[in-house]
Each structure stands twice: as C-alpha cells, then as structure tokens.
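Archive transcription. Copying these from loose printouts into the bound notebook so they stop getting lost. Printout 1 of 2:
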Amino acid sequence: MNYVYVIDDDLQFCKHLSSVLSHEGLEVKISDNVIEMASKVNQDKPLVILCNVNVGEQSGSKLLRSIQANPQTNHIPFIFMLNDEKHSREGLLALGADNVLVKPFGFEELLHGILT
C-alpha cells in the first residue's frame, strides 16, 4: 500500500488533509510525532511525506535529513508545510525538500505538490 504521511501538531488539519487525500484514493497516515513517523518510514516507504517545519518541539528538518541519509528512503518526496512565511522557502528547498506549501493552501496546490 502506498501511504501519504501527514505530520503536523494540528491534528484537525491532519484529519482534514486525510479526508481530502482519501477522497482521491490515497491511503493516509497522520501523526503529531516526527520521531514516531521516522521510525515507520523504512517499513512503510510512503509515497510522499507532508511535514510541518516544526511539530511541537520536534523538527521536520531532522526527519528530512534522516530520510535523505538512508539509501532505502532518500527517493521519497518530502514536502514541508508552513504556518507562515517566516521560514525561507528557498532555504527549505536547499535542505532538500521537494516542495514547500504555505498554509492555507488549496486542494489543487496540494495535489500538484504530491503528484509531481
């Protein structure tokens, strides 16, 4: 099964994304815990990871680096989600993110980010 990971400390937002993506036929796993999901990436090999830059006290950047360092997972697209534009889009792309979406983002922008 190809999963989409949605990692954010706003679980209502995660549930909304899960509903939207499930409607498109995608299986979604949501979490507010970067460390928990990092431990599952190798097993699940998700289709794409959508992760907030900061999830509580945990850093999405650390998850990205761990995925990039592993030859079994470094091909998985990683999309950062931002609550605002205080983080540099260019800086996050330079870290290796495949895309950066600023909330609120539209359904078309989300699907484009996942499917491209």
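Printout 2 of 2:
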Amino acid sequence: MSQRLYNGPSARPAAAAGRPKELRENYVEPSNFNMILAAACLVAGIGLGALGYHLLNGGARSAQRLRLKLTERERQLTEWKDGVDDHLQQMDDLARQVCDDALTLQRQLHESARQLGSKAIGGEVTPPSEPGETSDDIAIPRDYADGNRGTLSEDFGLRQANDDQNAEPRPPRY
C-alpha cells in the first residue's frame, strides 16, 4: 500500500476530495514537515538546555550561599574573640586592682597595730608573688642521680661498701 504525500491540488487522493472541508486531512509537504520538525527540536533543545542549566547551576548557587554564610560566621567569630579579649583585659585589671587594694589594707592593718602597740599582728607586709616565681628553698625533683653511682646505676644497692674494697675488680659486662 503506497501513501502519497500532498503535492498540490491535483495530487489529492480521491477519498479526501469528496469529504467536507472540515473533515479533510491536512497534508503537509515534505519541506514544511522538515521545517516544523526542526523548529520543534529547537524548542525542545532550548527547553532541555534551560532545565540542565537550572539544575547544574543550583550547585553554584548553593556554594555561593555557603561562602556567604562562612564569611558571616568568620566575622562573628572575630567579633566574639575581640569581645573575649576585652573581657579578659578588664578581668585582669580588676584582679590587679583587688590585689593592690588587699596589699594597701594589709599595710594599714599593720600600721594601726604598730601604732596601738598590739602584738597580735606581726610580720612584714609582703606583696603577693607572681605565678612564675619560685623560691630557692624548694628542691626541684630530678629524674637522674648525682655522680655516676646514683640510683639509676646498674649496681645500686647490690653490694655493701666494705665488699667493694675487698673484692677484685671485675671486667665490665657487655
């Protein structure tokens, strides 16, 4: 069965000629069919391209939002650190002021006790020591012994002092 495409008024099939104009089939010329197909493909391609751009560009928008959020958080962190530094500086100033006031109060107490002749409060007024200072009478613990016969030597506590004088010298052990 062969189909014929519409090639003008003379090539109309006989069945279409007897029908009313509203029921007749519309025949499309091959050149128009190619143009319509090309236009439909172009519209579909543009639509698919726009959809792909929208979907793929969503990651870039999300990355941009994350960068902005990170920048805002870093700014907030910097402000917070500055606030903490200011607070710590104020606390240090107040602690020094309290120490100075306590020293002044102790001096006044000793002066009043001296003027009244009271022996209940004695001693000298000493300012508080700094945290990094150490006194000379405290021995620092060591992890080594003095000399070459200390507690870490191999023969510590194995021989008596008089045995060392009578015994023959032994060769070193390897």
